[in-house]
Each structure stands twice: as C-alpha cells, then as structure tokens.
Amino acid sequence: MGKPRTPIGTWGDINVEAVSSGSFRARTWFRDLDGRLRLVQASSDTGPRAEVALKAKLAKRIRRSSGSVELSSDSPFTRLVEVWLEDLELDDLASSTRELYERDMRTLVLPAFKEMTLREITIMKVDRFLKQQQKFSYARAKHAKVVLNLALGLALRYEAIDRNPVTGTKRLKRPATQAKALSLGQVDAIRAAVKGWRRGDQKVPGPRPDGQLEAIIEVMIGSSLRIGEVLALRKCDVDLTTVPATVRNAGTIVSPKGKPTYRQPKPKTATSVRRIAVPSYTAEALRTQLIKVAGEAPDTLVFRSRNGTPLTTNNVRRRLRDILKEVGITGVTPHSFRRTAATTIDRSAGADMAAELLGHTSTEITKRHYIEPDENVNIATAQILEALAPGAAPDCASSEPAAGKPGGV
Predict the structure, then answer these.
(1) In the chain, what are the domains?
(2) Residues 143-179 pLDDT 10s
C-alpha cells in the first residue's frame, strides 16, 4: 500500500483486509501535525466494524493534536471549551485554580456563547457580555473576562480565529476599594474572644477547644502568611533555635473538589517560598504546638486534626467567623491579619519591606490590596510652613517688590 500525500490531520484511502478467520484489519496512512505519515490500523470481527474502529482511532488522534485541525472559525464555542479544558490539564496549575477556571467558564461564560460558532463571537458581543456581567459585580465580570480570554487565546494559537476579540473590549473599571487593617485594640478583642470560646462555666456539647485556633491567629499576625500556608507548616519548617525564630513558607493546604484535603508542596507563587523571622508571641505559639507533636517525624504538620489529617481552610474560616459573631465582631477574615501585618510594617519601614514580607515582587499589589492608606501628612510640613507665619520675615528683608516684579495689591 502506497503513502499518499494528504493534508495535515487527514488520511488516505482505508484498506480493509481479512487477517484470519473472523478477524479483519483496517489500515490507512495518517499525516500528523509534524507532516510525517504514520500507519494507523484497527481490528475487529468484521470489515465494517474494523473500519469504524479505525475512524474512531483517527478522530481521537486528531483531538490530541493541536492547531487548526481541531478548531476552525466554524467550530462551535462548546467545542473550544472542551479543547480548552483538556489543555488546562496539561498546564502546571494548582487544582484549586483549575477548578475555579472551569466553574467560571461553565456558570458565567458558556451560557452566553454556547449557541455561537467562533466566527460569530465578535468584539461587540464580548464587550456587551462583559458590561452585563459588571452590572452584577466587578469581580464577576473580571472572572468571566479572564476565562474567556484564555479560551479564545487558545483558539488564536490554534489559528481558528485571526484575532482574540477579548483584547479589543473596553477595560473593566475597578471600583474604588481600600484595604482595611485591624487596630491593636481589635486584634486583642479577637484574641480574647477566641481564647474565651467554650472555656467558661457553661457546659456546651462537643469537644473542648484544643488551642490551635489561637496559635494559628498568632502565626498569621506575626508572619503575614495566608491561612493555607500557615496550616501547611511542618515541624521542619519552624526553627525556634534562632533569635528571632523563623518559619519557612514552602507549601499550602488545598481541598480539591471531591478529593481529600492535602498539603501541596509549594505555596501560591514561586516568590512565596521564603524564610520569615517572626516576633516572640508567634514563636511562643509555635513552641506550644511543637510540644504537642514532639517525637513525631520532621514532616509532621504543626496544625492538624485529632486524626492527624490536615485542617481545611474552610473549617478554620468558619470557626473564626462563628466565634467572633458570638461577641459581635464582624467583617474579620484570615486575610485581615495579613493586611494588618503589611500595614504595620509599612508604617514603620515602608512599602518595600511590607512587599518583601508578603512575598510580592513589587509594591503595587501590596499598596493596592494590603496596606491601609495613611491619612496623616508628615508633621514636618507644619514646621516648614511656620516660615510663612505673620511677621516671620527677617528684619533685613526689603519691603519693596523685587525688580521686574509687580507690586502687591
């Protein structure tokens, strides 16, 4: 059988032959994305079934390949979503990020474009869609724009479209927001509420508090770590032999949908891996926890359930919220402690050091989302402006206007 020269992603004539009693084989030459011809074959108990099996194998081979073979301008948007979701599996994304992308695509974007082909998705239609999403919230529009841009960007790389229409839409206007840090009084009130929870004289059902939440809060305040990163700390990440003590941020806790919670051996970003010196109150909280896991392996989690499994971030958030609600404190999340740490550092040492503590590569994100704006102007301005006080001019100053200058009124 010869090797016909076919376009990339297609095949030549299918040859079906009997190879033995009750066994047939279908074969053809398939031209792969690299331009090379490869023999593809499939077998079954009849000739027609062998041909059907071969075509199914060829279709699967095309789906695995990239480029315009898989997608064209006439492809339905639903097909692009299928290809995009498969492509996400190949990216080095955190499982939580991948699940978020898939959820946003299925709930926000797909309902609006599922009846369209890629050719029909224009800048005007995308722009109108994003404006409709922004009527609900900026965050919703932003999430929708991100996943739609990723999917159509893939279609552009596959040469199914000539231009990504998302890039031509109007920029989403971010609503004015202001980071809010906790005052020392608020922090102490939170500490008192957590410490006193279920420790009074009244008898309440359920297990007694084990003290972990108090320690978790002290670590968040003193290290600026995210809640998932605090829960991922191991014995080997904590060094109490130095002054000040240090913790190494090298992981986070994730809870994939439908799967057990586990420690991911990397934090949110590569720049988040760092060793942080912590204040004495954080070191003391960690010392108390390390005593509880004395004798355990170095990779034992500092914070864990009674069964030794990782604590989930959602459970910690819910427990903190429920405790504070009982004493009338609202609006506090684990991220509030991260903002408080950043703002405290900024007030004394500037935004650069705050960004370094938080693991940011620049101060832009730190200033925008984590540092509470300081309304106070440097008091030195008052001292400088004293020079303009009535009668403050030196005695030798001339009262005549300077040459070439207009006189006073």
Answers:
(1) 15-64 (no CATH), 77-168 (1.10.150.130), 184-199+208-340 (1.10.443.10)
(2) 999 999 999 999 999 889 999 999 999 999 888 778 8
